[in-house]
Design goal:
The chain has 313 residues and is an all-alpha fold. Helices cover 78% and strands 0% of the residues. The longest helix has 38 residues. The protein is elongated, with a radius of gyration of 24 Å.
């Protein structure tokens, strides 16, 4: 409990610092919020009146306090681009991108763990070389290139999956999965490379330990030794790396969602940046940071649940 409280306090402090940086950077971006609302041909007196009514002439400290108060109370303002409240807009997009992140992580783990275990069991043999080559290919190809190849193969060529678009998961889960599958696979193939190398490294360390030699000496089947004894002890570091990659996914998702015209959180952030929608930029960055930190905290707690020998502190 002490560890959880300390971590939550650390998350709160980090988010506070992120909010300061985000607010500061967005306030030095080119563009005038009042002019974006009223247009470039607006009357100067009307522009000045709007700035005054929006509080844009107040000191930055006052503006920051007003913005943070709104974020904490759920009043995140209104998007200049979409002309609708930001909070419900972001909640819908977070759900859409969350589907991609979950599918990406599941695909990456399903591919990476067997491949890493296979490589560790056959160290310095052709199986290990093959695994390393696959991982290197995944690391060397950009996500957007993989995405283009997947569109050409599975959408344009075979016609199995849609190449673009978005379906609300709350309305049609199967349709949402079909539209999210190719973007998720594009991200998963790159993430798989990192997790494969981590799984191989962790398994090689475990397979050389004394308790594995004892299990083999007792005549246990190799499958039981590897999957029942070695892998549970090696999965912790893999989970930690997977949790840290959540931040990478939210960074890459901006490009992937734009490529697939998938209107999730990444697409929303890109549109906000492209159109200088300052209130939306501030909210999306803050929400993404909060989600990444909370997911990493959840991974740490899950690590402890899987391996009770780990002491959190």
């Amino acid at each position: 409990m002490v560890y959880l409280v300390n971590r939550l306090l650390s998350v709160a402090l980090t988010l506070f610092l992120i909010s300061i940086v985000t607010f500061g950077i967005t306030n030095i971006l080119p563009g005038d919020v009042a002019m974006m609302i009223m247009g470039t041909q607006s009357n100067p007196e009307a522009l000045e009146g709007l700035r005054e009514s929006l509080g844009l002439n107040d000191p930055l400290l006052v503006q920051y306090g007003r913005w943070m108060g709104g974020m904490l109370s759920g009043n995140w303002g209104e998007s200049l681009l979409f002309n609708e409240p930001i909070a419900p807009l972001i909640s819908q997009k977070v759900l859409a991108s969350g589907l991609i992140v979950v599918l990406t992580m599941l695909m990456a783990l399903v591919l990476a763990i067997p491949l890493g275990v296979w490589a560790a069991r056959h160290r310095d043999r052709w199986q290990d070389t093959t695994s390393s080559t696959v991982a290197l290919l995944g690391l060397s190809m950009p996500d957007f290139f993989i995405g283009i190849m997947l569109i050409l193969l599975f959408a344009a060529g075979l016609g199995w999956l849609p190449s673009s678009g978005f379906v609300d998961p709350t309305a049609d889960l199967l349709g949402a999965v079909r539209h999210a599958f190719l973007p998720s696979l594009a991200l998963a193939l790159g993430l798989m490379a990192h997790l494969t190398r981590m799984t191989r490294s962790a398994m090689m360390g475990i397979l050389n330990q004394e308790f594995i030699r004892v299990a083999r000496a007792k005549g246990l089947p190799e499958r039981t030794v590897v999957w029942g004894y070695a892998l549970p002890n090696a999965i912790g570091p893999v989970m930690t790396v997977a949790g840290l990659q959540i931040g990478y996914l939210f960074g890459s998702i901006i490009v992937i969602e734009s490529l697939f015209s998938y209107t999730g959180m990444g697409w929303l952030t890109y549109q906000a940046l492209l159109n200088r929608d300052i209130p939306l930029i501030q909210s999306t960055i803050f929400v993404i940071a909060a989600v990444v930190m909370l997911v990493n905290l959840a991974v740490d707690l899950l690590y402890r649940a899987i391996d009770p020998r780990i002491r959190l502190g």
